[in-house]
Amino acid sequence: GxxxxxxxxxxxxxxxxxxxxxxTSSSIFNTWLWYKQDPGEGPVLLIALYKxxxxxxxxxxxxxxxxxxxxxxxNISASIPSDVGIYFCAVxxxxxxxxxxxxxxGKGTKLSVxx
Amino acid sequence: DSGVTQTPxxxxxxxxxxxTLRCSPRSGDLSVYWYQQSLDQGxxxxxxxxxxxxxxxxxxxxxxxxxxxxDLHSELNLSSLELGDSALYFCASSVVVGSGYxxxxxxxxxxx
Lengths: 115, 112
What we know:
The structure holds two protein chains of two kinds.
Chain A lengths: L3 E4 L2 E5 L4 E7 L6 E6 L6 E6 L5 E4 L2 E5 L5 E6 L8 E7 L12 E2 L3 E6 L1
Parallel strand pairs in A: 2-11
Antiparallel strand pairs in A: 1-3, 3-8, 4-5, 4-9, 6-7, 7-8, 9-10, 9-11
Chain B lengths: L4 E3 L2 E4 L5 E6 L6 E8 L3 E9 L2 E5 L6 E5 L5 E5 L8 E8 L7 E2 L3 E5 L1
């Protein structure tokens, strides 16, 4: 099945620093999604990308849908303690003609912010 | 509060037992998805129901089954439980098939 390679697996940063993480696939997808999961909670959608090359922002978060449609990255600017959590990329296999409606998730990037 | 309600929040049971996890979708949402989150496999899609009908199956074991009732709540039944079934089980709901969906807070299942 499809596999998303998400990196880095974990990162420790100082409060105020910018963060960048990415997600790659060997297959083309027409939709890329970024979720954040806080401890003890379900994933929450941060940004959805629907067009190759698209750059979308949500507050301090910016995500881009790669031109090849095989990758995406997420940037967080001026990190704060509440940015701590696990960030997941996800794609919809149904968009590539295989499967339907479910999401395939990357393994996540665990972010720790040092005050 | 995401609007998706999952009960119970925690469940501890013995191997060989059967449990039922419950999910109430957001008001108006017709689609319910079930996912399993384990440390080694990450978030894995199990099954999708839309307005009472099964729409897609993922990596769901034969020991597991689900259904969606007329009031749109869904139940995930796990039987003959094994230690490896210990995981977080999430449901998510959406208004229409394929639209972005909202996750519940999950049920943490521990099999001892």
